[in-house]
Amino acid sequence: MVKCTGKSVLKGIAIGKIYVYRKKEFTLVKTYIEDVAAELKRFDQAVKEAKRQIGILYQEALESVGEAEAKIFEIHGLMLEDEGYLEDIKDKIEGKCNAEYAVKEVGDEQAKVFAEMDDDYMRARSADVLDISNRIINILAGVGDDAIKSDEPVIILADDLTPSETIQMDKDKVLAFVTVHGSANSHTAILARSLNLPSLVSTDVALLDEYHGQAAIVDGFNEELVINPLEDVLLDLTAKRDEWISETESLRKLIGQDNVTTDGRRVNVYCNIGGVEDVDRVLESDGGGIGLFRSEFLYLGRDSAPTEEEQFESYKAVLEKMGGKKVIIRTLDIGADKKADYLGLDPEENPALGYRAIRICLNQPDIFRTQLRAIYRASAFGTASIMFPMIISVDEIRKIKEIVEDVKNELASENVAMGEVELGIMIETPAAAVISDELAKEVEFFSIGTNDLTQYTLAIDRQNQKLESICDTHHPAILRLIQMTVENGHKENAWVGICGELASDTSLTKTFVDMGVDELSVSPTYVLGLRKTIREI
Ligand code: PEP
Ligand code: MG
Questions:
Q1: pLDDT tens, 214-232?
Q2: What does the alpha-carbon distance between residue 53 and residue 156 come to, in Å, rounded to a whole number?
Q3: Which SS3 state, helix, strand or coil, does residue 268 take?
Q4: Angle 305-307-312 (CA atoms, 0-180°, nearest 5)?
Q5: Sheet holding 2-5, edge to edge
Q6: Residue whose CA lies nearest to ligand 1 atom number 10
Q7: How far is the CA of 380 from the centre of ligand 2 (A)?
């Protein structure tokens, strides 16, 4: 039996087998080959395998998301039969270049040609050529895709996980995450929490292959990973897990009840989500609405930005599923730990203080307009609100409003139906909290992002695991900024919510209620526990 300690992301217990997850990286180099015939054969076999994989993906997509979404794999299949593409690669191999490099060169050349075309449809094919080329290269180089190959749900043991890796995992196969690095406030941790997975970050465990397949327990209460537990430990923790499950079950009697204190103060309890796949959990846990839809997750784990149509479909699906309940869509908050290579953002010394979120949107309005068009089009299918992240000035809001007005006029001239959309901002920089009196005149609501507000107020990088011990999330400076924001919001009739992780900290619920906070937006996992706390105040 081996015991390791980490930092708990969710108080719960998972029991299962370990799956050691390694990033599959390799360096692509150009080499000179002698045996051209053997290399051509290797290439032909890789193309055949790529077709087989794409065929499977097509079927899976057809069954899970429908014909329209599956079409992309049909296109990939056709591209793999394109004579021009295949012949160009073979020519390079005949020039004695290794197959991997030949595929890379031809893929890049063709992608560039597509990218420079005028037609939107053809331009979008650029990412597809890169995608199929990468698939062939990975097959040639013996690199697996990152899919979890296991018949049963497992405990993922990894060095670290980026939000895009986490988002791409088949969640039905995951019982828990345990990472050697990472902090409890990272987006990967937030994702684990929203999936109700009792996970550990910053764990002192060695990433040994021999652990793969071994029995283990993730104990989120004691912040421990137990590998190969002794019989009595297993029995003990199994009982504790069952107790946790039954306590969670017993909260279900609060479904349908109000979030109201004993003296009659009502607080909205909404949910944070990353995509349409999370909405079922919101409904199951009786969330009153969606207080934070982190739309940037739609942009992660892919080779190109989601189109207006793709975004429209996602927002519409969430709005329809929520059946008229409020859905607050936060516009793209990419940057810092949420990276998308295709945006071509330069590496930065201080990414958290850098080019991110609304700064990108105001500087690259095409990206912003596409998203706004998609949200306004979807607004006809439910109750949509929009909020803007990382605001620091009134000037930003004015610029945003100009773009919003322009997009709305454009859609109106196309006779597109739109609903009433409430506009708000995130208060997650100390600057925004301090000038919240002025900002409140411009918007209908504030949502306080305590994750970033904490990192910027305390000057503590939320990703830095070394600083977690001094990261006092209850620091009086943060609580005062929250109080000030609530008061300033209310003076101008703007409602004020909290959507950072602090919203689910029940030791502060009474403080927030006393401050007059109108809404708390939490992971679906916490809705009923929070309701219980509110009802006992
Ligand atoms: C926050 O900063 O508190 C927040 C809710 O946004 P994110 O965690 O996505 O940065
Ligand atoms: Mg934030």
A1: 999 999 999 999 999 999 9
A2: 24
A3: strand
A4: 125
A5: 2-5, 224-227, 215-219, 13-21, 154-158, 174-179, 200-201, 7-8
A6: 452
A7: 27
